[in-house]
Inverse folding.
């Protein structure tokens, strides 16, 4: 009998679908990008698109700076990868993200053909940034997770909280902005 490992880092102890140690360097790369984005006063999220050990694209959240509510890190990484490849097919790719994806990012990843998203920080790590809660999006995220649970995996990663801590420090110093 096999058991699904439980992530001790996940606040609600949700099962971890499998170890993705081979993706740790890309998770660290995404965390570095997210921390730099936070230091620049932008939201602390980043993503890297990987296929066959090659980085196809990267992205950081530019929603505030660009006044673009869909400029999330995963979407930007998918866009970057598709531009570099000259097409919209990311079949077999993995989107490596600093944080559990929202419904929009999960959908964009699937639409582009990526196999799945692997993330470092569960959504419970994300501080309240003062936005308006969107229960409809939370429900949609739950539906996506239920319909395609194999497409999203939490990989506990050292330093997963760092981008959020840095962003809060920037906010406290009055440095966050658009």
């Amino acid at each position: 009998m096999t058991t699904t490992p439980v992530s001790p880092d996940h606040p609600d102890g949700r099962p971890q679908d499998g170890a993705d140690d081979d993706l740790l360097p890309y998770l660290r790369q995404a965390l570095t990008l997210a921390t730099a984005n936070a230091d620049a006063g932008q939201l602390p999220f980043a993503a890297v698109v990987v296929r066959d050990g090659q980085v196809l694209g990267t992205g950081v959240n530019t929603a505030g700076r660009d006044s673009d509510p869909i400029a999330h890190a995963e979407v930007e990484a998918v866009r970057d990868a598709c531009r570099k490849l000259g097409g919209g097919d990311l079949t077999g790719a993995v989107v490596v993200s600093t944080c559990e994806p929202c419904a929009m990012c999960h959908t964009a990843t699937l639409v582009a053909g990526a196999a799945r998203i692997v993330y470092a920080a569960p959504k419970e790590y994300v501080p309240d940034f003062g936005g308006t809660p969107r229960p409809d999006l939370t429900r949609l995220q739950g539906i996506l997770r239920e319909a395609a649970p194999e497409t999203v995996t939490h990989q506990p990663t050292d330093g997963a909280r760092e981008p959020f801590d840095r962003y809060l420090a920037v906010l406290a110093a009055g440095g966050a902005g658009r």
Notes: The chain has a mean pLDDT of 86.
